[in-house]
Amino acid sequence: MPAVQEMLNDSMEEISLACDFLIAYCIGTRQSRVKTVHNLAFDFLLAQSKVCGADMGLIGHLMKLDKGQQQGQVVHLEPAYALGQCDRSI
Predict the structure, then answer these.
(1) Is the dihedral of CA 71, 72, 77, 81 positive or negative?
(2) What is the structure's pLDDT at 53?
(3) pTM, whole model, 2 decimals?
């Protein structure tokens, strides 16, 4: 995982490949429920789009996930982590 995380400093093409791998293979095919994998995939999506702050839909979705998690729903991404990442990127 640390080697994949270091790719956040690479070119947008490398970031896109890593993101695709995490989402398609790790989360999709392997059905990973590991929060680290989901959080890292979010980091790559954030690096690709830089939409936090401009896209209230993404922030609204994260807030909905956070509320669901507080009510006991299983959420594999940590919404509080993702919202913090959004806040740092603004």
Answers:
(1) positive
(2) 45
(3) 0.70
